[in-house]
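Handout, page 2. Input:
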Amino acid sequence: MKAIVPFITLLALSLVVLPVIGGDDVQLRKAFFEFAIDDEIVKCRKGASLRESRSINLRLKGHREASMALFLETHREELVADMLAAGLAPKTYKVQRFLNDRFCNTCYAQWAAQSDL
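Output:
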């Protein structure tokens, strides 16, 4: 147990000091956001396979997932820039919420406006 304490202390110290020494927090956050968007695209593509389902609700979910994957692919750079500008914390759940909000406020809002005509 006594041998583990210095190792844990060194590890904790390195987690605090290395980001400060390494410097560019913006580049780390940008890389995190890009990876999170890529991961979300992969998840959406898997969910898009639901379009082949016999259930109407699952087909609608599959359509939404395919639409979101397309949205994320086409607006990837803009979304990363917006997350950086908003000062979004590099946490997976915050990125997912940001992406869902942005998707619903753009694509679905336009579709809803068109269906009201």
